[in-house]
Amino acid sequence: MTARILDGTATAQALLDETAERAAKLTEQLGRKPCLVTVLVGEDPASVTYVKMKGNRARKYGLESRRIVLPETSTTAEVVAQVEALAADNTVDGILVQHPVPSQVDEPAVFEAIGAAKDVDGVTMASFAAMGLGRPGFQSCTPGGIIRLLDAYEVPLAGQHAVVVGRSPILGKPVGLLLLERNATVTYCHSKTRDLAEVVKTADIVVAAVGKPELIRGDWIKEGAVVVDGGYNPGNVGDVEYAAAAERASWITPVPGGVGPMTIATLLAQTVDAAAARVG
Question: Which residues are annotated as a binding site for NADP(+)?
């Protein structure tokens, strides 16, 4: 068996085109473009690159993009005050606080200052609860993008055994909640899991989200399983041994070109959703 590709680049492009159309209509209704503000604390090179890329993509598809850069030495109170000001600004639809923040800043406290209505990155407790309870709200962008990608290729989720390897609050945990909401049976694996290989071998759907190059070996993949690689490591290497896994899987995401493009597309789509909610 040779796996078919879950093409995140093409699927994201379709979502971005749709988002641009919606943004144009909302611009007419609001008298301004839907607005995404990114808050960056410090000058971490990778974070600077990500923020710039997100801003460029937002502008390309009809959104206003603002960037606020705070000093590396900022305190929690200072960052929270800035985010609260944005939350109260009626010209701002979505707020993204770039992760990670410096160690002296209480990141969860900063996230909570965003408020659920502008949490287009899906990082607040309210958004997490909405994902877990199946209520309206914004999804964490990478998990939400994964579900959109699986839906685009009509991959069945109900009744499937999904194994999520990783339990981070921005990927592993929320993607498991979203899969559970779609009636998959979900098993979480992590650094304390015994016999990881044996657990992965039982999966109909494998979601790798650990940030360790090729941790998931190809011969762990059950014949016909769907493999979603949410990892990205130096050298364009994911968390799954791609070539070997592709010989056994029915569907697989490439790295790059799989999950990554869906993350930004989902962020922009949710920003337009937030703007639409303001219109009512």
Answer: 166-168
